[in-house]
């Protein structure tokens, strides 16, 4: 009996101690208000200060959010969750359930602490901008050249990053580019050339009355000479997909439509026009994006047509987590393809439409990635290199090919899982590479993925983009590569091509004539290079577009004409 009493006392003391320990165990260590205001360098009495103070309800968040790798401050996450309680916020998803564009929202708020749209930027007439070295044509092979590096955005006083470019296939002298302009007026910047890229003018998308700024640029042309551009219209914690058009080659722009319907949690869109004269869906405009977790597509049936009233969800049970980082392309027969990666089950996925985007087939899983969502590398440790996809399609009487590229770890032991990424460790043996897969039967089956340039050195490749020459079938890929810097921080832009449908690739050729370092003081550390670059290829001419700060000043948008046989 005494032994039983002793055991009961011991058990009671043990339980009491556990309860006391649990009661005194510190909860998640949320940052103090002073620390938050200091980090954001908030102006006292500003609307931004009031917004931060009004969003301190950190009990809405998971405890693990205090030390995750998502570069969005906790008060902004609270603000977003208040507006979107329907979203799924999970630790299993590397995005945490938050749209990637919140990084741009944060940057805009820091540079617009009154939380109001800035006055409009002034359009600029065409100007000639060569690089500081004034480089002339540089022969690459007996039949190809890399032309002068051109600063299409002109000298900037605020960062410009993340760009899309498209040649007008029916008039290749006309080219348009778009980029983010977060630190300026916030209006998406548009660059236009009517002389094959020799000179460039600049204009801006007007803001819809309910928007504060734009993000995630995309551009293309329809055969009537109309230029098109899509973007995210952002106001507070509301994100909508906007389309614009220009009937004078990009000099001025008018609002077209909100093609995301009633959705308000849209992110990471891109667009594409069916350029094929043999397609029954010629001039159809396609756009892809994700709303919350799923992948969506909409289409406009030509310049005189209309967008579908309700966007179509194309992802399903094959995609877990968030379907972020899409691309959409079409072939000469009018078949359309949308590609996306997933953050939950780390997949590269594709869906196909044969009826002009009215319906989409069952998604095909192309590959499984080693890392997921993004990769921390020394040259892109703050923004992190996004695992997004770039696709393409090419069809003739004898060919029915579909292609896709993405960035991932190499897959060798010690470089085949998210925990292996190098981060800021220059000596890490883990590195990022550009991967490629192809389908020779219209997207039904896919080849085993391969790296197109797996150098032995410790360098990183990222922000790849692929194009397909619709006149010849030639493939071209561009990407940043730190191969010229032993410290893995300075980048050049390189390109490779394939003239045998992706079976083999040419040696890598450097496009840039000066390096960029986005890790030093003065760089746009939160945004760095942005999430993507772009290229357009037609009739043997390649025009890439990329973010560059070779001058040591602000980030700017550059291009260079490349001629292939």
In DSSP terms (H or I, runs of 4 or more residues), the helix count works out at: 5
The amount of helix comes to: 10-25%
Number of folding domains? 2
CATH architecture descriptor of the largest domain: 6 Propeller
- The name CATH uses for the topology of the largest domain is Neuraminidase
Radius of gyration: 24 Å
Give the class from helix and strand content and strand pairing: mainly beta
Class of the largest domain in CATH?
Mainly Beta
Low-confidence runs of at least 5 consecutive residues: 1-26
N- and C-termini, Cα separation: 97 Å
Proportion of strand residues: 25-35%
Shape descriptor: globular
Mean pLDDT over the residues:
92
Annotation, overall tally of beta strands:
35
Main sheet makeup: 7 strands, antiparallel
What key attributes describe this structure?
single chain; 565 residues; Neuraminidase; 2 domains; 5-stranded antiparallel beta sheet; 5 helices; 10% helix
Give the helices and strands, then pairings.
Layout: H1 2-24, H2 33-39, H3 47-53, H4 74-83, H5 102-111, E1 124-127, E2 138-141, E3 144-146, E4 150-151, E5 161-167, E6 175-180, E7 189-193, E8 200-204, E9 213-221, E10 227-235, E11 238-246, E12 254-258, E13 266-273, E14 285-291, E15 295-300, E16 312-313, E17 327-330, E18 336-341, E19 347-353, E20 364-368, E21 374-375, E22 385-386, E23 389-395, E24 400-409, E25 432-439, E26 450-451, E27 461-468, E28 475-481, E29 490-498, E30 509-510, E31 516-517, E32 534-538, E33 541-548, E34 556-559, E35 562-563
Antiparallel strand pairs: 1-8, 2-3, 3-35, 4-34, 5-6, 6-7, 7-8, 9-10, 10-11, 11-12, 13-14, 14-15, 15-16, 17-18, 18-19, 19-20, 21-22, 23-24, 24-25, 25-26, 27-28, 28-29, 29-30, 29-31, 32-33, 33-34, 33-35
